[in-house]
Structures are given as structure tokens and as C-alpha cells.
Amino acid sequence: MLLLGFTLWYASYYTTIVVWELRKLFAWVALPLVAAGVAGLLWLALWWVRRRADRRGGGSAGVALGWLGALAGLLLGVAWLVYGAYLQDRAYMGGVQIVADPVPQLSARAPYVVGKAQAAPHLGDVTGEIADITYLPDSDRFATLVERRGWLAGYEVGLVQDIPLGGSSREQQRCAFDVDTADARVGGWFAHNLGRKISAQQRWVRFDAGDVYVTCSDGVPVVVVPLKRQTGFLVVTERPAGVALYNGRTGRLTITGDTLAVPGPSYPLSLAARQREATAAVGSFSDWWFERSGWDASEDGANEGNESEFTLRHGEGSGNSAYVTPLTPQGEASSVVAVSTVPTRHRGGGLAPLTVHRLDPTWSSPKALVALVKAEYRDVCCYNDDRVFEVVPTGGSTWTATIGSEQNIRYRVEGRGAVDGREATCLKGADGTLIRCAYAAPGSAEEQELQRREKEKEKQKAGSGDGGAGGGAGDLGAYSSEQLAELHRRVSEEVLRRLKAAG
């Protein structure tokens, strides 16, 4: 017994997994087991009564009562399996707020699909396999974690790259792991398993592989593993439990609860997604059962590859960031009616607050918005390898769609939802410079800018006169350098469009 106990304690990784799974299983079967136990005791009691009754020539009432008890236990077990799922969602709903306030101002970023596509070409002579790609909002960069080939191997390199949205910088930083000292990874074999090292240092915590990412600090790779713990007895849920930091040079593992100091999204993304899914239980049990309440993430294919929990920075320069998801009502409706936000950092062992911002006006579905962008801006979308990427919330009631190829983002389209029965959209350069609007929302900054430009044009016309050499609309000397560059770009695009149409 002592040897068995020592073995179980030494195998902290496997015992943690077994305890986690058994605890989840027990939460579902605890009440049915109690019901079955009560029914079994009732059967035994009735069996004894029946034996005595048979001797006296009776016992039919005891048999009927026994069957009734068994049926009641079965029904209780089935009911708990259903109602327990509702209670679990309600437990995750503890920190949810539903408000009519606009979404905080958020900064646009390069689409996740672009960050994923640009990772492999920039790895150079690295022979490993890409394990994870994560957006780091603090530095506005994408981090790529590469596994080394082989069964008994860890990670090979971490790549942090700048993918510009309207800029020319393409800085990259590759930080190599010491493959002899830091030889553990998520899902590795035997002593090369990072999860085993975490369990040996802190038992009863686990993590989701999709939450793991890498950062580079002074050329040293650090693998960040957001941790989770279980709470509850009959209703078992997960809570954050700090982060594990694995040094890629020394192989040292540090577990800390100070998640605010971690350079990246330290709150588990998988936990934020579970909280968002639990909004289905915002109403009563009957509303939850018949799917009449709550919201779903939009999954119409427009944001294929990344449909929910967009990691975005706040726009006011506070250094904060959030997991942001456009929400559609449950059912056949596909219009975006709300946006959920969960902070990417959270202090303490409780759930981070999830806020659902109701939109007014609402948006069309992301798929419909993509079709709208292609229809209203046909001169810039979509030729060759260009396409419309993510449609993401960017604050207030606005959304942003990026246009370009996987190697070069060229434009962005910003919309404000249905204003006066029409989607208000404006085309901008990748850097946010306004080009034109298909329909500018009344009173918006875009409408004011367009009006200012129109007045400036009229002023220039009036100043140039009606005729004379170099006068009139053909006088390019009155244009600023930015206006002349924009005119040249538009003329080039129009010529290209006509050549393609003629061909």
C-alpha cells in the first residue's frame, strides 16, 4: 500500500489528469448514483417485505412500489444530466454584464490568417513544425512557437514578427531554444512533457494547448502557459490559476499568480470562450433548453480560421486588451446584434468579467458584409490573390474588414451598421487614411472629412479661375503632395481595371 501510494504521488501528472476527469464525471453521475442507491435500498427493503408477504400470500403492492422507485431514480438521473448542464452554464454566467453601452474603442490589427500565413516563409532554415501562432497585443506582433522534430524533443525556436497594417516595418525576432537544456514541450514524451513538469511543481492544475504561446525577451524564448483549476462539487467549473513560464534557455519553470506582469494574453482564451458560450443560459431553464436566449459566435464562414475571441488592443493607449467576439442571436438569424469582451489579463482566481454590448444599430452578418464590400468597392477588391479578411469589431458600433493578400494588406473598410436602412461604409488605406465612402453616416467623422475636402476643392477652383494656361480643373500645381499621390494611385488602378476588363 505504501509503494502504491508513493507511485501515485510521484506520478503527479497522471493523477492530476485522472482526478480532473473523475471529478467532471462524478459531477454528472453523483445525483443519479444517489438516486440509484436509494432505489437499490428500496428494492432490498421491498424484497424483504415481499418474502414475508409471499409467505402470507401477498406482496403485489411491494413489487409495484419497487418498480415505482426504480423509475423515479431513472427519471431523476436523466433530469440531472440535463439540468446540470444548465447549472454549469449559469455558474460561468456569474461575471457577465449585459449593457447598452458602446464597445470600447479598439485598434485594428493585421488579420490572424495573415499572421499565420507569414509565419512559415520567415522561419528561414528552421526544420521544426509550427505548434502555435498567437497575437501579442502589448507589442502588436504575432508570435510563432515551433516544435523540434523527434519524439524526445522540445521546442526549436520562437518567432516574433511585426506584420504591418499600414506601415512598412517588417521586423522579426527569432529566439532559439537550448535544445539540450530546455527540451520539454506540450504533449512531449516522458520527461520531455511540459505538462508533467508543471504538475510536479503544482498539482491539480491543467491547461489547454491552444492557450500556450511564446514571447522573446532579449533573445530568450519564454513559453507562457495559462493555467486553470477546478471548482465545485455537483457543478464543476474551471477558474484561472496563474501562469507557468518556461525559460527556453535554462529550462527553468516558474509558476506565478502575477499574471498582469506577463507580456501577453495571460487569461486563458479557452476559458473566455467557455464564458461566452455560457451566455445561452442568460434566461430561464426553458429558454435555455429551447435555445430562445443568449447568443452565438457568428460562424457563416466569413472569418474562417478565426471566428471568435479576436485579441484586440484598446484604442485609448491604456495598454489594455480584450478578447472580442461578434454575437448573433440563437436561431436562424445571422445579423450581429451584440459584441462580447473579456479582458486578456485578470488578477485573482475568479472569472474575468465578460461584458455583452448590445449594438444599435446592428450589423448585417459578416458574410453579407464581405459581399457588400466586394460590391461597393469593386475597383480595389478583389483581384489576383486579394481577398476580404476578418470582419472584426473596432469599438463603438463600428466594424473593420481588411483587404489585400496574405503578404500585403492594402486597404481596410470600416462600417457603422445599418444607418437609415443602409450599411454605412468607408474605404480607407491600410494606415487608416480615408479614401472615399459608399455611404457616410450622418454626423460621422468620415462625413465631416469628406465635406472638408469638398470645400477645399471648391476653394481651389475659385482661386484658379475659369481658364488660362495651367488654370481650371487641370491645374495640378494646387494639389498637395498627398493629394497628388492619391490621384496617381487612383488613375493607375483605373487603368489596370480597364485593361483587365478589355482582356
Structural class: alpha+beta
Poorly predicted runs of 5 or more residues: 467-473
Shape by Cα distribution? globular
Q: Provide the gyration radius in Å.
A: 30 Å
Q: Major beta sheet, specifics?
A: 6 strands, mixed
Strand content: 25-35%
Mean pLDDT: 84
Listing every helix as H and every strand as E from the N terminus to the C terminus, the arrangement reads HHHEHEEEEHEEEEHHEEEEEHEEEEEHH
N-to-C terminal Cα separation, in Å?
83 Å
Number of helices: 10
Proportion in helices: 25-40%
How many E-type strands?
19
Architecture overview:
- By secondary structure, the chain is an alpha+beta fold.
- It has helices spanning 2-10, 12-56, 60-92, 112-119, 194-201, 269-277, 285-289, 366-376, 445-464, 481-502; strands at 96-99, 129-136, 141-147, 155-161, 172-176, 213-217, 220-231, 237-247, 253-256, 295-297, 310-313, 321-329, 336-343, 354-363, 387-393, 399-404, 409-419, 422-429, 434-439.
- It is built from 10 helices and 19 strands.
- The strands form 4 sheets. Strands 1, 10, 11, 12, 13 and 14 form a 6-stranded mixed sheet that branches. Strands 15-16-17-18-19 form a 5-stranded antiparallel sheet, with helices on both faces. The chain has a 4-stranded antiparallel sheet with strand order 2-3-4-5, covered by helices on one side.
- The longest helix has 45 residues, at 12-56.
- The radius of gyration is 30 Å and the shape is globular.
